[in-house]
Specification:
The chain is of the alpha/beta class. Helix content is about 35%, strand content about 15%. The chain has a 3-stranded parallel β-sheet, with helices on one face. The N and C termini lie far apart (about 80 Å).
């Protein structure tokens, strides 16, 4: 290996100094890499929007703009909270990623309900509700999850008699990919799209949808769900209903 000369050392020092003095625009062009809670799924994304305590109107406007820009750039749009859905499910390569770090807890003590935001963590809700002498009927086992993540997987909490988390949800507001906000109830098992939203088709016939609603399998106990897992996977919806409607 050749012995470094004074000239090469000066050149190396100058190069290092030049890198330190790079303009911010160059640094801003560096790749953005996000990860889930496992820290085993580093994923590069095109844009990262951290959603904080924005006023509601400003948040909705920004969300619509981000969705539109992602669509124009032919990019996926992914939303996450604490990203405890591990294995890469909560991120998508070269997507626009939104991380919800929001806090909202509006308690209606008379109705024993509370309104929150998708990104609110359970630890925050526990603290806020506890000040008024309340606690969630159902939540996930860990307090660092976000409420929307709990809803998306319809998690079962510790209090078994209450069933899954979805059984305690009275309503939620949803924005479609086109920017429309769903303001009215959508018939069960109906697919809607567009802005304003329009029904596209039914996943099941009206008769099958009514039978599924009456069966309410999502309120079953853990043991019964485990016992019927293979039938969930392999039976048609008609055969499943015929087998379990009798109880």
């Amino acid at each position: 290996m050749a012995k470094p000369t004074r000239r090469t050392i000066v050149k190396l020092a100058a190069a290092a100094a030049g890198a330190a003095l790079m303009p911010r625009s160059a640094a801003a062009q560096q790749r953005i890499v996000l990860n889930d809670a496992s820290r085993l799924s580093p994923t590069p994304v095109a844009r990262h929007w951290v959603v904080g305590a924005d006023p509601e109107a400003a948040f909705i406007e920004r969300l619509r703009r981000e969705l539109k820009e992602a669509q124009a750039g032919n990019r996926a749009f992914v939303v996450g909270g604490a990203r405890h859905s591990m294995g890469g499910q909560s991120l998508y390569r070269n997507a626009t990623a939104a991380t919800f770090e929001t806090k909202l807890c509006e308690l209606d003590a008379n109705a024993k309900t509370y309104r929150t935001h998708a990104g609110s963590r359970w630890i925050y809700l526990l603290q806020e509700l506890d000040r008024a002498g309340f606690s969630p009927a159902v939540m996930q086992s860990n307090a660092d999850f976000a409420t929307a993540g709990t809803l998306s997987v319809n998690a079962h909490g510790w209090p078994v008699p209450f069933g899954p988390f979805g059984a305690t949800v009275r309503s939620f507001r949803l924005m479609l990919a086109g920017g429309a906000i769903v303001t009215k109830d959508v018939a069960p098992y109906t697919i809607v799209a567009g802005n304003p939203a329009r029904p596209i088709r039914r996943r099941f016939t009206e008769e099958i949808a009514e039978r599924l609603q009456s069966l309410a399998w999502w309120d079953w106990e853990h043991a019964r769900l485990r016992a019927t897992l293979l039938d969930f996977r392999h039976l048609s919806v008609e055969d499943f209903l015929d087998r379990y409607e009798a109880g």
